[in-house]
Structure formats: C-alpha cells, structure tokens
Amino acid sequence: MTKEELVELAKKEMERSYSPYSKFKVGAALLTKDGKVYLGTNIENAAFGLCLCAERNAIFGAYCNGVKKEDIKALAVIADTDGPVSPCGSCRQVMAELLNRDTPIYLANLKNDIMVTNVEELLPYSFGGESLK
Fold it and tell me: N or C end of the chain: smaller count of CB under 10 Å?
C-alpha cells in the first residue's frame, strides 16, 4: 500500500469524527506489515479531558487486536489544515512508546500535502520506560 492510499483511508475515516466542540476532524490509518489497516478518528466529549485523538484511537485499536510495535509498517494522519497536520504532545508520547522510532508517519492535509516523518523526528527526547531503568 502506498502512502497516498493510506492517507486516503485516513481521509475517509476523518468523516466519522465526533467533534461538535472543536469542529476539527482528524483521521488516522495504521498499516501493519501483514497488510491490515486499523482506523481511528477523533472523538470529543463535553468533559474535554475525556477526548481521544485519531492517532491514539488507531494505535490503541491495533494493540487491542494483538498488534505490537514490530508489526507496524506506517501511520497516516490527516486533517483540514494549511500544512500537514501536526500530532499533539499526547499522541507523540504514545507514538514514542508504541511505534518503533523509525516507523514512517505520514502527516497530511486535504490539499494533498504529505510530510514523511517518524517518532525520532517528532519527539526526539521522549519519556519512556527505558528512561526509568
């Protein structure tokens, strides 16, 4: 699957967003090495601390189905932004723990801009279990 195809799946998932407060729809698609795709969209709640981002929904959904970091091939994230969407700090921290440091992450917008990055670039000094040892 190409990065463009993965971004397109994330774009379709974006429409399932429940974002009545921010009106900011985000979609994500996680591709595993065996070709399975796990989708996620942002879900808001009036108690804002209970909201969950698209990226974390896709990653957590994959993990709930037995996927591990070594199984993940790529992650795509898309939103209606001027440039490629930028993940929040919470999502970056989750990516740092649950994805390999070099897993490709495709950040996109509706103008077909796609930036290819990875965890190392998004969060070079992340906190993780290894830093507690």
Answer: C
Q: Quick one: tokens of 53? A: 């981002």
Q: Specify the pTM.
A: 0.93
Backbone angles phi, psi at 38, to 5 degrees: -115, 125
Q: Which residues contact 37 (CB under 8 A, 6 or more apart)?
A: 1, 6, 9, 29, 30, 31
Across-strand partners of 105? 75, 117
24 contact partners, CB below 8 Å, separation of at least 6: 42, 79, 80
CA distances from 85 to 46, 81, 97, 126 (A): 24, 6, 21, 20
**Residue numbers annotated as active site:** 55
Measured from the Cβ of residue 44, the count of other Cβ atoms closer than 10 Å reads 18
For all residues of the chain together, what is the average pLDDT? Answer: 94
Q: Residue 9, Cβ neighbours under 10 Å: how many?
A: 20
